[in-house]
Amino acid sequence: MRSGNEPVTARSPLRLRFWLSVWGLIWAAAGAAAFSLAGRPGWAAACGVVALLAAVDLAVVLHHIHQGPHYQPGPDVPPYEPPRDR
User: Fold this and answer.
1) pLDDT (tens digit, 9 = 90+) per residue, 4-13?
2) Range with the lowest mean pLDDT among 31-35, 36-40, 48-52, 62-66?
3) Contact criterion met (CB below 8 Å) for 31 and 43
4) Please, what is the end-to-end C-alpha distance for the chain in angstroms?
5) Are 17 and 65 contacting, i.e. CB atoms less than 8 angstroms apart?
6) What residues have CB less than 8 Å from 32, skipping those under 6 apart?
7) Three-state secondary structure along the chain?
8) Where does the pLDDT of residue 28 fall: very low under 50, low under 70, confident under 90, or very high at 90 and above?
């Protein structure tokens, strides 16, 4: 429900989340490769799981970015009451 007091200049954190996911994916993949070459399969698997989570988050963020902005009522539109069941 819209409360009516949202900031006019509010921004979505999707671009920041995108770059944090890219950063995490790079470091986790590099860690998985390094631990794999060093003969540490447990740490390599842990880094692989983190890389997988970062890749999934990256896909979700890209999906939301490609959806584009959604309609938001302006500051002159008052808050609305939720629908009531009859």
Assistant:
1) 565 666 667 8
2) 62-66
3) yes
4) 19
5) no
6) 44, 45, 47, 48, 51
7) CCCCCCCCCCCCCHHHHHHHHHHHHHHHHHHHHHHHHCCCHHHHHHHHHHHHHHHHHHHHHHHHHHHCCCCCCCCCCCCCCCCCCC
8) very high
